[in-house]
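Input sequence (360 aa), recorded before submission:
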Amino acid sequence: MLMVTGLFCPTRALCQEEKEHFFNTLSFMGAFHYGLYNAGNVKLQSILDSRPLLGELDISTQTTGVKNWQQLSGYPVLGLGILFGNSGSHQYLGNLAGIFPFINLPLYRQQGFSLNCRVGIGAGWVQKPFNVETNYENLVIGTHLNACINLRVSAAFRLQKHLGMDLGFSFTHLSNGSTHLPNLGLNIPALTVGMRYSVNPALKMISRPLPPMVKKWNYYVFLSGAIKEAYPLESASYLVTLVNFEVLRDYSNTGRFGGGFNVTYDPSLTREIPNSPTYAFDQSQSKTEVSLYGSYEYVVGKFSLPLQFGVYLYNNYPVSWVYQVIGFRFRLTDHFLLNAGLKTHFFKADFIQWGIGYKF
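Predicted structure, token format:
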């Protein structure tokens, strides 16, 4: 009995200590986002009737260096954000909402002040999507459920021991990745102000000697797929398949640069026939796309955030000759990883891809 008690008490004390430590790292924030305009949507201008105004609540935890990647990344903040508010079009879009996990990376930090960059990726909701009978004026969003990307650059000031203020600039993107048309995407740049309460603002950061970095080349192959609807509206949806060959070079413990070669087969591709007496589309050309892209990848433990900028070498249905991809990856083992990304043509979403990768 004494042995059981002796074994149990340290375990219970350790669990209690971990819970108390986690509670001490928490902070809570309320913020407002005042929308300036909605970039990238020409057809949106006709349905706007106000400025977008969004409220946000978030809960976050300050990493303290318990794991090596936290120290290597400058002790970032991890959290969950919730957005809700006016889209800027009461009649045709209604309200919108979003929920997303985020990482807040410190760009500069000193006593009582920090400059930060936050990246959040999650799910979004739009109250009034396109409907061919009741809401055909909305040619921006075709579904209630969408992907939500929230980016924010802000300056944080400590006002009192537990209370602080954030001032900055945010950008919110909602899109269904063309799973259902229309899908021009909703883009909201905004001025942001928030108030933050920190449970323990005087946390002690753990700093330990880290193993020396070994810069190396990383070779990958990715196989991905996406669901995409073809034009015109109310047409069929198709499976888009992608193969990527990618090479990245470590330049720091948290960053990689490189590039890749992409082959995409997109059976949804069409081209509107100019000067046609009817609303007609041509689908006679090859649906294969070939491109080269440059890539930067920010590494946070087993997670990473890839950013890609690509140029088409072969494309019979060009919306643009260049494209961009923002995504995330999760390392399952030393060789296998999950991959997801949103492909866009200058803020106009093309599709959301999901796949698996292999590292050689």
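Checked by second reader. DSSP finds two helices and 18 strands in the chain.
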